[in-house]
Write a structure and sequence with these properties.
Elements lengths: L1 H10 L3 E3 L5 E2 L5 E2 L1 E3 L8 H18 L5 E5 L4 H11 L3 E4 L12 E2 L7 E9 L3 H12 L3 E10 L3 H9 L4 E6 H10 L7 H10 L12
Parallel strand pairs: 5-6, 5-8, 8-9, 9-10
Antiparallel strand pairs: 1-4, 2-3, 6-7
Keywords: Glycosyltransferase, Magnesium, Pyrimidine biosynthesis, Transferase
Function: Catalyzes the transfer of a ribosyl phosphate group from 5-phosphoribose 1-diphosphate to orotate, leading to the formation of orotidine monophosphate (OMP).
Enzyme class: transferase
Length: 212
């Protein structure tokens, strides 16, 4: 599954490596990888692999799940499609309360005590998805865990998930995609070490400019 999804994401340019000309994240971190899993929505074959993969994660790891809740905005469509495949209720969590109407942050019906799974597109430092988990818990849900498409596996993200006592299962991960990218010629094999150096310590930019 990890390699199949990695190949899918690389094929449609949802994950794009540029170790010699890094991207800059909103946080200011320089990254050798750009990830836009929204592109899976416009690639029906890949979309099918992703949604069936998310369905398999929920069925295997969270068999008691009663509803899926997507993160806003990237997780909403994936939650909706996966919930449709599974015949489950679905909702989503806004980044903040609406400033009009009922002022909802959680959209969709959520009964206190429901066992829910959060659907996320990618996890880096983990901050945004943990905010979603916290909002659902405050509303009375029992959050079984997270099902995500891609995770960087960054130390900070792993530590935050552990501290929040929430489990995440991803379809693929940074290491798997880096390996497939090297095997299929998207990057040079010698770039893998640089990519892993970034993943292990994003604040250390010694990997930039060909550093080995």
């Amino acid at each position: 599954m990890e390699k199949m999804i990695a190949k899918d994401l690389l094929k449609i340019g949802a994950v794009f490596f540029r170790p010699d000309q890094p991207f800059t994240w909103a946080s200011g971190i320089k990254s050798p990888v750009y990830c836009d899993n929204r592109l899976t929505l416009t690639a029906p074959e890949v979309r099918g692999d992703v949604e069936n993969g998310l369905k398999a994660i929920v069925e295997e790891h969270y068999p008691d799940c009663q509803a899926l809740f997507g993160t806003s905005t990237a997780g909403i469509a994936h939650a909706a499609i996966t919930a449709h495949l599974m015949g489950l209720p679905m909702g989503y969590v806004r980044s903040g309360n609406k400033d009009h109407g009922r002022g909802n942050r959680i959209e969709g019906k959520l009964e206190p005590g429901w066992k829910v799974v959060v659907i996320e597109d990618l996890i880096s430092t983990g901050g945004s998805v943990i905010e979603v988990v916290d909002a659902l818990r405050e509303a009375g849900a029992q959050v079984l865990g997270i099902a995500s498409i891609f995770t960087y596996g960054m130390k900070r993200g792993l530590e935050r998930l552990e501290a929040a006592e929430v489990k995440n299962v991803s379809l693929t991960n940074f290491d798997a995609i880096a390996q497939v990218a090297a095997e299929e010629g998207y990057i040079r094999p010698e770039d893998i070490r640089r990519l892993i150096a970034f993943r292990d310590n994003p604040s250390d930019e010694s990997w930039i400019g060909g550093a080995k």
